[in-house]
Design a protein that fits this description.
InterPro entries: NTF2-like_dom_sf, SnoaL-like. Pfam families: SnoaL_2. It comes from Halobacterium hubeiense. The chain is an alpha+beta fold and about 120 residues long. It has one domain: Nuclear Transport Factor 2, Chain: A. Helices cover about 25% and strands about 50% of the residues. Strands 2-1-6-5-4-3 form a six-stranded mixed sheet. The radius of gyration is 13 Å and the shape is globular. The protein starts with a helix and ends in a 5-residue tail after the last strand.
Amino acid sequence: MTDYAERVHEYYDAVDADRIDDLLDLFADDVVYDRPGQPPIEGKAELEAFYREGRPLEDGSHTVHDVLVDGSRAAVRGTFSGVQDGEDVEFGFADVHVFEDGRIAERYTYTDRDTV
């Protein structure tokens, strides 16, 4: 059985190190990613475009405080510190990752900011 807690840690490590190819390998081809204040990202091509060109957060890192796994779902609570729109930011987040066949098929992000 896949260790979903380990997989979500791999995700945050890849994001923080800007390893986009490694990050994309964690997701299903038909992934759906919902985040605050934005339309959903649908499919791996849109996800790649987001991480390569459209992500408003940069020069940052995630600190994961908790990962709770229930079946094929992993809930994560943490903090992000970095830059958004040229300004230093730090905020809390909660993400839910839904796995299918060992890959992230759905992802939901919640933050205490209007958009990320």
